[in-house]
User: Fold this.
Amino acid sequence: MWIALPPGLLRMRRLLLVVWLGLLTLATGLLLGLFAGPAWAAFALLPLAALLWGWPVLGRNWRSWRYAERADDLLISRGVLWHEETVVPYGRMQLVEVTSGPVERHFGLASVQLHTAAAATDARIPGLVPAEAERLRDRLTELGEARSAGL
Amino acid sequence: MTTSPGAPKDVQDIGTGTEAGPAGESAPVGGSVPAGESAPAEGSVPLERRLHPVTPLRRAWAPVAVLAGWAVHDPDGAQRQLMRLTTTVLLASLAAAVLGAALYGFLSWWFTHFSVTDTELRIRTGLVFRRTAHIRLERIQAVDVTQPLLARVAGVAKLKLDVVGTDKKDELAYLGQEEARILRAELLARAAGFAPETVHGVGEAPVRRLLHVPARVLAVSLVLTGATWGTLAAALVVPPLLWFATHSVWTVLATALPLLGAAGASSVGRFVTEYDWTVGESPDGLRIDHGLLDRTHETVPPGRVQTIHIVEPLLWRRRGWVRIELDVAGSSNSVLVPVAPREIAESVIARVLPGATVPSTLARPPRRAGRCLPLWWRGYGIAVTDTVFVARHGLLRRSISLVPHAKVQSVRLEQGPWQRRQGLADVRVDTGANKTVTARLRDAEEAAELLYAQADRALTGRREAGPDRWMA
Assistant:
């Protein structure tokens, strides 16, 4: 019943991590090495360590994301250290949004965001394939309409 | 299902019959929808009305208030400036300012219209920037009629509809006292689902008084409140200390005045607002009337209450007094009963949330919760009845929150790393009034069960809940 996220999100996040921290490592190493002496260049190891630490952490976080469409509600589970599980009954959904930023679009990804009357409801599913995101949106809208109720 | 016309394709709106404005990108289910153009009324053209002719006067005070504020803020400068001007110039400029404000007040009054259709209250306003608010009556969460002191003298009143998303501008200020009462009755009758032809004949619904707070009890309750003494002590202790430290009159004044203001607001101010507090019950819902100088009359239709909190400050416990607060979506008013004996308070709650009882015993978190939160873990507790989810928190100032199952918007389980080691988790229940009730430090397995069970109960609770139009 649980559906995991497609690997696109992990690829995107890891690529962003490597690009940004890789650049930072290079920049720190080069600048400090040239202007402050080779010993100082060791500081470039910090972003490198962050990169090596971040790689598996991103993987664990990505694996922790999953969602399930049950008969009457949508279930979203996420987080490793700070675990969070959200249940949103279909009848309470006020709005379903599909968003996709420029980077996400480049990787062919889209997020589905649910809004209820409570602003605290933070129900977002990131990193879906656009087709799946649209299917989910249409299905949630349909189910929400069938069970819709006021406040 | 209507998709808002201006919204991008990817945004879908599940609202039941929402009329979204062109500006709404991800337009939620509409309360008040400020629309650029007003759609023609269904059926007959609604009768447009103006506010009470006394309305422009309230704006005429503005320049006088500004001048007074300036004089208080900078007395030396004000005196020097005033000395330089002759009396004629002074009078002339004051007259001009008052006239200008009066003209502005008159124009804004002239261009403000409101009308009531079968389904909406429409407020059309604005001299330069036109604005039309369509407030859907079946979405009414509460109706407030307020009368500030001056308005009482003039015999007028303010009427405000609490709908999710309305703002300050969407109130009708001022209406004649009688007119406000009739309009409130009419709005509530329409919102309740009475047939349009019979609305005018329905009139005020009869009120049955549930509770009245005597002035003596209110005064004693304020004396027994820690906040009253805290602010008073701060106002008395801080300025002398500052005087010894700085010897500057202005510093002392700048801190003493706000502190005294806070002390006054938390003691005398609260007494004045909560004086003569009366809770009544009528077919239109809950009636709350209160105020010594400013009178407020609130009406909360049936089935609008999202959460009820029973607050029990430490010093009230010996007397068995409690304070009841309630959350209504889109409303800022939160007190239902400022002070009452526990049994009476519970009988009021039973009227507000039909079928709900306050459970006498609540399940505490497991003992190991003390490793997450020493001592204070004892204050937490939960209970679930057929109609409400109950959570308690606080050790000295105990607070019990009741959420009807039908009002639960979403349920969340949260677990931090330390809680995971202890096998504990929090369950959060979100309601439509943007408040979250948390059952903290439950056993992890119990929390997981609670999560699913509460989501199921939210559904069944909704099925059994009354309709939005409570008389239909």
In short: Chain B is about 35% helix and 25% strand. Residues 191 and 356 of chain B are 25 Å apart (CA to CA). Residues 215-274 of chain B form one domain.
